[in-house]
């Protein structure tokens, strides 16, 4: 994705900056306490296929139900996962992971071969994974992705069932963080082979090796469960028995469910934030997310023009968007890096990479750049469709962006708010003029 085709419009935690969180615990008829919680998200799962997953909701559920070699915890610490330990060669290019004897939820062993298979499947061009580039520092990955080598040539091999050896192109000290991410998770070979193209499209067509097992998701429904996985190697330390998940698009509906005890957690939006600021259950959680406007340069070559892009960027008042329209704790961004995401020597990288003019608002300047851009591209006007989700927040965002951009002479914007899954699909296939989407730090 070209950074030149993006305009930053929202900052940290656009969708879940402030929440109300209680704690649900119910008892069974026998008297034994069952730890349950009722949780909400703003959209349903798109896919559980590790090789094809790209969105936040899917990633959250995959992380809850599966596990990679290592697991990342607080303060960027990495702890053992499927791998009980690992070693790195003196030149930093060979990593050897020693796996524990863990199991999939069906009782079959999780082996090094499951990791090899998963990684090879992701870099295979036939899989069309949008995250295949994440493997680029593993030997031969780039040639495989380009279709010049067979996936079996990837620099990873299983030395028996419980030893995985990875060969890197160059030393990568942060590779330990990479393998903790969901893209590097194993895939149960028998499940992929059994279900083929339908693998990961519902709860019964995928294997789970993590803390929870996904139940009740048929691929399209808005409710599902995460149930404790008895086969998980560390099950004794998992205290929660069931997490009842519900996708709720409308903040008012979600808040009503929370107040009536049907939800133990809900995100707040707009005036809801003001009304609940003094509640003991009110919490602010920052997410390392940047929301942006992507322009389809292939469909509209005019977006390759620097002045056109600058005009669009300067025409959007980011402060007004986060303070008046969203009013949910979101922040106007300083650039492509979210606040408090990464620090070096105690300094926030978002501050060090801040270029004020890149995220400024100046309608007068925007009109000047717009006029220049129209002259250079030979255009007099443009009629565009703005694509986004059909949630309440997304609708308010598109309405605001529409009102801002149409202040440029000759610009007509038609909003198109569609279900989350549809937006993801259209974004990936290039079926949009403009689309509001997000980048979330892994």
Describe, in short, the structure shown.
It contains 13 helices and 22 strands.
Q: Please give the share of residues in helix.
A: 25-40%
Query: Could you say what the CATH topology of the largest domain is called?
Result: Dipeptide-binding Protein, domain 3
Instruction: Please identify the structural class as seen in this structure.
Output: alpha+beta
What's the total helix number?
13
Radius of gyration: 23 Å
Distance between the termini: 17 Å
In the CATH hierarchy, what is the superfamily of the largest domain?
A: Dipeptide-binding Protein, Domain 3
Measured by DSSP, the beta-strand proportion falls in: 15-25%
Q: What form results from the Cα inertia axes? A: globular
How are strands sequenced across the largest beta sheet? 1-17-22-20-21
- Domain unit count: 2
CATH architecture of the largest domain: Roll
Q: Got a strand count?
A: 22
Subcellular location: Cell envelope
Organism: Lentilactobacillus fungorum
Signal peptide: 1-21
Family: Belongs to the bacterial solute-binding protein 5 family.
Can you give a write-up of this model?
Residues 1-21 form the signal peptide. InterPro entries: Peptide/Ni-bd (IPR030678), SBP_5 (IPR039424), SBP_5_dom (IPR000914). Residues 78-442 form the Solute-binding protein family domain. This protein is an alpha+beta fold. It folds into two domains: 3-15 and 287-440, Dipeptide-binding Protein, domain 3, CATH 3.10.105.10; 56-215, Dipeptide-binding Protein, domain 1 (Alpha-Beta Complex), CATH 3.90.76.10. The chain is built from 13 helices and 22 strands. It has a five-stranded mixed beta sheet. Strands 5-14-13-12 form a four-stranded mixed beta sheet, with helices on one face. Strands 8-9-11-10 form a four-stranded antiparallel beta sheet, covered by helices on one side. A hairpin with a 7-residue loop joins strand 12 (212-215) and strand 13. Helix 8 runs antiparallel to helix 11. It is globular.
């Amino acid at each position: 994705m070209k950074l030149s085709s993006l305009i930053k419009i929202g900052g940290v935690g656009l969708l879940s900056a402030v929440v109300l969180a209680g704690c649900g615990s119910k008892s069974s008829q026998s008297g034994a306490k069952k730890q349950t919680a009722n949780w909400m998200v703003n959209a349903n799962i798109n896919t559980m296929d590790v090789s094809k997953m790209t969105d936040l909701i899917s990633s959250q559920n995959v992380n809850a139900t599966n596990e990679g070699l290592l697991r990342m915890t607080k303060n960027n610490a990495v702890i053992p996962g499927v791998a009980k330990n690992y070693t790195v060669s003196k030149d930093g290019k060979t990593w050897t992971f020693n796996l524990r004897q863990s199991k999939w939820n069906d009782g079959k062993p999780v082996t090094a071969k499951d990791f090899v298979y998963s990684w090879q499947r992701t870099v295979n061009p036939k899989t069309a994974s949008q995250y295949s580039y994440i493997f680029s520092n593993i030997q031969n990955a780039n040639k495989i992705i380009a279709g010049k080598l067979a996936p079996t040539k990837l620099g990873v091999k299983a030395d028996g069932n419980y030893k995985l050896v990875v060969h890197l192109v160059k030393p990568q000290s942060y590779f330990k963080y990479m393998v903790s991410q969901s893209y590097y998770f194993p895939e149960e070979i028998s499940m992929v082979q059994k279900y083929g193209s339908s693998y990961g499209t519902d709860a019964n067509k995928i294997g789970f090796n993590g803390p929870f097992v996904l139940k009740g998701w048929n691929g399209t429904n808005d409710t599902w469960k995460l149930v404790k996985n008895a086969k998980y190697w560390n099950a004794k330390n998992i205290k929660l028995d069931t997490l009842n998940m519900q996708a709720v698009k409308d903040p008012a509906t979600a808040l009503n469910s929370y107040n009536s005890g049907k939800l133990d957690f809900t995100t707040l939006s707009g005036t809801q934030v003001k009304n609940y600021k003094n509640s003991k259950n009110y919490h602010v959680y920052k997410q390392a997310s940047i929301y942006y406007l992507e322009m389809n340069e292939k469909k509209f070559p005019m977006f390759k023009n620097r002045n056109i892009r600058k005009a669009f960027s300067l025409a959007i008042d980011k402060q007004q968007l986060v303070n008046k329209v969203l009013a949910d704790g979101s922040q106007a961004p300083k650039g492509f890096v979210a606040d408090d995401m990464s620090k070096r020597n105690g300094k926030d990288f978002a501050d060090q990479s801040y270029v004020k003019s890149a995220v400024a608002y100046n309608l007068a300047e925007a009109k000047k750049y717009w006029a220049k851009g129209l002259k250079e591209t030979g255009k007099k006007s443009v009629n565009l469709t703005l694509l986004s989700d059909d949630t309440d927040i997304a609708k308010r965002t598109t309405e605001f962006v529409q009102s801002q951009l149409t202040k440029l002479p000759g610009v007509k914007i038609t909003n198109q708010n569609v279900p989350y899954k549809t937006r993801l699909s259209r974004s990936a296939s290039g079926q949009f003029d403009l689309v509001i989407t997000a980048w979330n730090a892994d």
